[in-house]
Amino acid sequence: MDARKVTLWDLLDGNKTYRIPPYQRRYAWQKADWERLWEHLLRQYEVATGQRQDRAPHFFGSVVLQPRPDMGAGTAVAEIIDGQQRLVTTALLLAAMRDFSSDEEEIQLTEECLFNLQRKGDERLKLQLGRYDHDNFVSIVEGEGPKVQGLLGAGYRWFLNEIERLHRRDPKRFNFSALRKAVTIRLEVVRIQAEDMDNCHRIFQTLNSTGRSLSQSDLIRNHFFMVLGPQAEKAYTDHWAPMEDRLEDDLEPFFLHYLVAHGRHNTTRDTIYQNYQMTLTDLESKPDKVLAELKSISSHSKSYLKIIDPAQERNAVLKKALSRFQEWGTTHQRPLLLRAQILADTGKITKPQAARACHYIESYLVRRLLCGLFTNNLNRNFSSVAGRLHEVEKDFTPKLLVELSQKAMGWPSDEALNEEAESLEFYWTQQRRQQRFVLQALAERLAGKEIPDWEAADYTIEHVLPQTLTDEWVEMLRSGGATDPHQTHHELKDTLGNLTLTAYNPELSNYPLERKQGIFKDSGLKMNQTIAKTKLWGEKEICKRSRDLYALATELWQAPQKLEENTTELLLSRLEAILEGLEGDTWTSFEDLASVLNCEVQALRQLVIDSEQLPNRDFILREDGSLDVDLPWVARGVNDFVDRLVSAGIVGAEKNKNAPKAKRLDLDQVLAIQESV
After folding, report:
1. Contact of 225 with 82, CB cutoff 8 Å
2. Could you tell me if residue 645 is inside a domain?
3. 29 with 159: CB under 8 angstroms?
4. Is 202 part of a structural domain of the chain?
5. Beta bridge partner(s), residue 187
6. Could you tell me the residue range of the domain that residue 251 belongs to?
7. Are 366 and 259 found together in one domain?
8. Please, are residues 57 and 187 in contact by the beta-carbon 8 Å criterion?
């Protein structure tokens, strides 16, 4: 490896070509980046013109290069592994300077930084960009910058405007030569040249270890193609570029859901590369296997496309099942949908079986909404199920039903729905989109074969008994038997039985029942026509409609499978096996244990309290690593308990009462212990 500090002129002087590999990301710098560079350049310009005392040149960052002697005849060719954003930006600035100047000599000197003047075609360019930016960049350096759109064109015009403003500020003192020297002589970079691809890859990882400047998918892409070496360009063209074009802004979510679907269920948006890096690092010494992995994920991206755009799925039944999740509007379920779609696309299960899996997931989500259950644990629930099923193939659909039906998953039964029918404030559960989904599905079921045309009008949720009580409605409630109309209104107005869909919400407002019925009777929805025929709209009518709609919901959305309850003895033996598997200075939490054992946290907690002979129960802490002082053996002597944790190496000698997260066994590791026993 050769690393040295050089000026921009040192980089660009002579016959040189810097090539941005096609798999590198597009030009991404924006106004804030241009402003920061320009601010530093103005200080260097003032030094060059004598307006400011001499100061050190501006350090502009690093440029990592891999020489490619096989790619040029008479021209030094190198691929830019890191630093392309800096070099492209300075090229935009130089092009803007050239187009501003009227001095032929200065134009010539500036063009020597942009072109190998004795060459032709692409070899004439000192900087060759990837396929997405190539044409626009060529247009700019060839003098057509004002016409170019996108970030490249915007950057060129921004610099041209700043140069013109600098000139207008003091035309007599403006010094173009000093500005050119500020760019080419007083901008310095560390040029790092590594002869082999492995070194380039290590350097790149070091410079981008935080992942701040690159997206998670950028880091994955660069890792792939720096490992692939000579195969990189063809692999990019054949596999990565089609995947990138296919998914566009959904590429990063695809990697997240792909990892979760394949057992990495502790992956978050911030740890996508970190988790996928483990897979690639294991394969690095075997380029053929790296290429096979790339082919595999590119193929699976076609399955993901069907999830985000169900029109791509040819099977009508599965297409409809996937489309319903587009209407539902959440993404928690995508790892499981992706797993089902991949299995269907590879022939491991049939398309109808995948559609059935979709129905189980939809039923799980809708029934939770109808019971008013929180959504904040859905990611965890679906991820844990994905982790347990990631190696299951032909039995995926029935095993998915079993996993979702576990008590800890919280899939409401028919009995649970019936309990909520008359009292749940449906209008305040989750989002309007999901509420509309449920009402729309119920309306379609009531309509029979005459499915309403939802695209024909803008349907919104309407309160039959209005949200604001009027005198007419007070009398209506009294006529229906309410002794306290205001209390009855408060209890019933937001329940499912009082809600419907209509395209005439503004017209209905707080009007009396008769006026609303005049609109409902002409509605295209059978559920509204039924309301139009009632003589009263009070507690009896609203509660009956709620019960009827909930009963209809139990027909539409499947109940969980009734499973044999785990006996206490079985649960205890599984827990004991996991705790015995805790090694060294590690700890876990009740939440992770409950997720793996498919039981409720409180039930597990009580079992642990009652089982004094359990091994390593001291090492079950709160999720943040703090002491659970409500546990009897902790409460009896906190200091003694901390001493035991210190002896075990879980906390340091300073007795910090929070165990470090690094020593916590995550869900993957706890699951691995269970699977091994």
Report:
1. no
2. yes
3. no
4. no
5. 58
6. 216-412
7. yes
8. yes
Helix (H, G, I), strand (E, B) or coil at 264: coil
CA 363, CA 307: separation in Å to the nearest integer?
17
3-class state of residue 109 by DSSP: helix
Can you name the residues that pair with 79 across neighbouring β-strands?
A: 19, 66
Q: Are residues 265 and 385 in the same domain?
A: yes
How many independent structural domains does the chain possess? Answer: 4
Q: Are residues 171 and 228 in the same domain?
A: no
Q: Are 122 and 72 within 8 A, CB to CB?
A: no
**The Cα angle at residue 401 between residues 398 and 406, in degrees rounded to 5:** 135
Hey, what are 407's tokens?
């008590």
The answer to whether the beta carbons of residues 133 and 26 sit under 8 Å apart is yes
Which tokens in the block code for residue 48? Answer: 């060059």
* 612 is a domain residue: yes
183 with 315, same domain: the answer is no
Burial class (CB in 10 A: 0-12, 13-18, 19+), 179: buried
Query: Residue 403 has which token pair?
Result: 């996993």
Whether residue 563 is contained in a domain is answered as no
* CB contact at 8 A, 205 and 71: no
Model pLDDT for residues 440-484, shown as the tens digit of each residue: 999 999 987 778 888 888 899 999 999 999 999 999 999 999 999
Are 597 and 477 found together in one domain?
no
Domain finish residue from 556, 588, 619:
556
43 neighbors 55 (Cβ within 8 angstroms) = yes
Three-state secondary structure string covering 399-460: HHHHHHCCHHHCCCCHHHHHHHCCCCCHHHCCCHHHHHHHHHHHHHHHHCCCCCCCCCCCCE
Q: Same domain for 240 and 301? A: yes
Per-residue pLDDT of 263-297, as tens digits, reads 888 888 988 988 888 788 778 778 889 999 999 99
Question: Which of 339, 370, 336, 352 is closest to 559 using CA atoms?
Answer: 370
123 and 33 in a common domain: yes
Cβ-based neighbours of 469, under 8 Å, separated by 6 or more: 485, 486, 489
77 SS3 class: strand
- CA dist 90 and 96 (Å) reads 10
Give the C-alpha distances (Å, rounded to integers) separating 476 from 379, 536, 669: 45, 7, 61
Query: Which of 496, 556, 555 lies closest to 371, judged by CA?
Result: 496
State the average pLDDT over residues 14-33.
88
Domain boundary among the residues 522, 556, 590 is at 556
DSSP, collapsed to helix, strand or coil, labels residue 549 as helix
Q: What is the CATH number of the domain that holds 604?
A: 1.10.10.10
pLDDT, tens only, 166-219: 999 989 889 999 999 999 999 998 898 876 655 555 666 555 543 345 788 988
CA pair distance 524, 512, nearest whole angstrom: 21
pLDDT of residue 423: 93
3-state secondary structure of 6: strand
Q: What is the pLDDT of residues 47-64, one digit of tens each?
A: 888 887 767 888 888 888
Q: What are the tens digits of pLDDT across the range 541-565?
A: 999 999 999 999 999 999 999 876 5
Measure CA of the first residue to CA of the last residue in the chain; give whole Å.
48
The pLDDT-based confidence of 644 (bands split at 50, 70, 90) is confident
Looking at the structure, do residues 280 and 378 belong to the same domain, yes or no?
yes
Q: Which amino acid is at 118?
A: Q
Question: How far is it, in rounded angstroms, from Cα 345 to Cα 343?
Answer: 6
